[in-house]
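# nightly structure sweep
# worker-07 picked up a monomer target from the shared queue
# config: single-sequence mode, recycle default, output format = structure tokens
# input follows
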Amino acid sequence: MSLYSIPPLVIGILTLAMGLISFLSNRRAKPNVTFFLVTLSVFCWLVGYAFVYSFKEYEVALAWTRRLYVGVVFIPVTSFHFAVAITHREHLRRFIPWLYVAGMAFAIATYSNLFISGLHKFFWGFQTKVGPLHNVFMAFFVSVMGAVLYLLVDHYRRIRNAAPLEAARIRYILLSYGVSVVAAIDFLPNYGFQFYPFGFLFIAIHAVTTAYALVRYRLLDANVLIARLVLFVGVFALLLACPFGLAYWGAPALTGWFGSTWWILPMSLMGVCAASAPLLFLALQRTTEARLLADQRRYHAILQQAAQEIPFIRERQRLMARLADLLIQTAGARF
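# output follows
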């Protein structure tokens, strides 16, 4: 594996971990669901390039570049979907299906030489070489991401006095998106500018800022957040290492056996790993959180029992004794 592949691979996995944790914390909340879609798009972009930077064969790298760009074209679409959900602008929801249609059109266009005309060969590996149709996508990208930032700024101005806690949450999300937009600098190497794409640094800041907002405003228990993050990164890093290692170290042998279609095997293995990773993660998550939350669940059971008893206690002395016993059981207090 190329050293230049490691940063986008790590940040891609961490970004998806953040989205999955947000989704699992509240599966019914639209902002959580749509934010997971954003992180999934970013994951496809970063991890896809991690593969491309490690490939030696031009045709294989080009095929992977066309696939990873599907994630790129959906970043503005899913970001707008998230912005509409977090700002509660229901009247803008009618535009969302059309944006997804546009995203699908651009995704199909990535297989045309008018969109991706080939690859540059730079010191870090292969890099996308874009065609004239990519300029249309860039106009789309800038317009939609500009709308996302406008929605967040406008929503913050509307609620900063009426709902200060929600305004603080939006402020962190706005800061996070403002930083992540700078990652668009990674488009410049696609136009022939030779510098290593470092947009993953801004994505990392985006991830840290959002994680801070989750913990700071008690949207998720900090211990549970850390446990889920560690589990997710560990499981997905292990399972992604299998197809990635097969593609990188096994390419010569696979090419000898299967010819130009050798990449089908690591891609199939990636599909199997991607399907099994969530099941393994959820199983480990249940076991880990059962241990982390054991005391909290015990306290909850004690408080439920006390809530049923206390209304029927009429004597003050008995009531005080019961409350003292309750404190001893839950907080370990001694009198």
